[in-house]
Design goal:
The structure holds 2 protein chains of 2 kinds. Chain A has one domain (3-109). Helix content of chain A is 85%, strand content 0%. Chain A has 5 helices and no strands. Chain A has helices at 3-25, 31-49, 51-61, 66-134, 144-147. In chain A, helix 1 runs antiparallel to helix 2 (31-49). The longest helix of chain A is centred in the last third of the chain and has 69 residues, at 66-134. Chain A starts with a helix and ends with a helix. Mean pLDDT of chain A is 88; it is low at 144-149. By secondary structure, chain B is of the alpha/beta class. Chain B is built from 8 helices and 7 strands. The longest helix of chain B is centred in the middle third of the chain and has 17 residues, at 126-142. The mean pLDDT of chain B is 93. The chains are: A mainly alpha, B alpha/beta. Chain A binds chain B through residues 94, 96-98, 100-101, 103-105, 107-108, and chain B through 35, 38, 54-59, 61-62, 64-65, 68-69, 72-73, 76, 167, 170-171.
């Protein structure tokens, strides 16, 4: 594994680390979601600092060069992440749909209830008006027959 | 027996009013609910203005989600059967009551309004081929014969209302793969002959990409995933 690749790995890892720290600090990523990237950065640094690990494993699996093995590890890690993202999005989609449905049904119930209360209020107003009229003091200002439905 | 016509609507301002008024006048004993799936046009304003019975979702979530919302409504309001009725005027209200009757008579879980049960030949080309493929897949995997699996006009009994409205139900859509699932799990799927119209307004979502997605999902679900559910 060339020195240049090792330096590149370290630079990449440090960059990943810095970006993640910034994101967590500015509340743009949850700590739970940062774990993957911190581990990824650690794996890159491990490979760069101890090339012996990659070289030994590459020989054991029959890779021509250790760098190919490092690339494979990175591709593998990315695939795992992509898969878990896909699964998470599925669950999130389901949750958003559920929430939208519940909100729609809640709004509906509230509108129906509001309408009912309105009807009761109109009825009460009309009833009070009628009683006032019967008492003989109704001045016809609000005719109960008009406020009723 | 309380029957609910579930009318999913996404951007159906052109024909929702005509659809609902013909439904109400043809089937006075049937309640309806429009589930407005976050339409960006005037669907909601028109329905509320005419004091129609409408549930509006705050965002667009797709037909399956809108349909499930309607099923939750049916469950919470104690309906015994739900008929899916398209807002675009393709479905004819004359068939609603016969379908209810058929559901009761046969004690079925689903009654499908089929355009091809009487031997009418399916359209040639991709549409007919897709329909035939789904019919064949359902037959091979479940033994049931469904001549018009893609018909959107279906009436669902109480067991299906429970299934669709259950909080645990994940990715259950009013599509052919659910029909296959029900048939395989021992549910009863019945068809009856019906006529349908061309859509009376609005836009079809059936462009090439969506058709491919729909067919891929349906086939994959019937061939593979129904056995895991």
């Amino acid at each position: 594994m060339s020195v240049a690749l090792r330096i590149l790995l370290i630079v990449g890892a440090v960059a990943v680390f810095a970006i993640i720290c910034k994101r967590v600090k500015s509340s743009k990523m949850q700590i739970m979601d940062s774990i993957y990237w911190i581990v990824l950065a650690a794996v890159l640094i491990l490979n760069a600092v101890f090339p012996g690990i990659a070289i030994t494993l590459a020989n054991a699996f029959g890779f021509i060069s250790a760098s190919n093995f490092v690339f494979l590890i990175i591709i593998g890690l990315l695939l795992v992440k992509e898969f878990s993202n896909s699964a998470d999005i599925s669950v999130l989609k389901h949750k958003v749909e559920e929430l939208a449905q519940e909100q729609g049904l809640d709004d509906y119930d509230q509108a129906v209830q509001g309408e009912r209360i309105g009807r009761i209020e109109r009825y009460e107003r009309a009833r009070r008006g009628r009683e006032a009229g019967k008492a003989g003091r109704g001045h016809g200002a609000d005719d109960p027959m008009e406020t009723g439905e | 027996m309380r029957v609910l016509a579930l009318v999913p609507a996404f951007n159906e301002e052109e024909c929702i009013e005509a659809t609902i008024s013909s439904l109400v006048s043809t089937c006075p004993g049937v309640d309806y609910v429009i589930v407005n799936d976050g339409s960006s046009d005037d669907t909601r304003a028109i329905c509320e203005g005419k004091r129609m019975n409408i549930v509006s979702l705050p965002v667009n979530t797709g037909l399956a989600s809108g349909f499930r919302c309607g099923m939750k409504y049916a469950k919470r309001h104690g309906y015994d059967a739900v008929i899916q009725f398209d807002a675009d005027g393709q479905h004819l209200p004359e068939y609603v009551l016969p379908m209810v009757k058929r559901l009761v008579e046969t004690d079925a879980d689903v009654v499908i309004a089929s355009r091809y049960l009487d031997g009418t030949v399916r359209p040639s080309g991709a549409r007919g081929a897709g329909s035939r493929l789904i019919t064949w897949l359902i037959h091979v995997t479940t033994g049931a014969t469904v001549t018009d699996p893609t018909s959107g006009m279906r009436i669902y009994g109480r067991r299906m209302i429970d299934m669709f409205s259950a909080p645990s139900s994940f990715d259950i859509a009013p599509e052919p793969d659910t029909i296959a699932l029900v048939a395989r799990k021992g549910g009863k799927v019945v068809e009856m002959q019906a006529r349908m119209r061309e859509r009376q307004g609005g836009e079809s979502y059936l462009n090439l990409v969506n058709v491919l997605r729909y067919m891929s999902r349906t086939c994959l679900s019937i061939i593979l995933f129904q056995f895991l559910r």
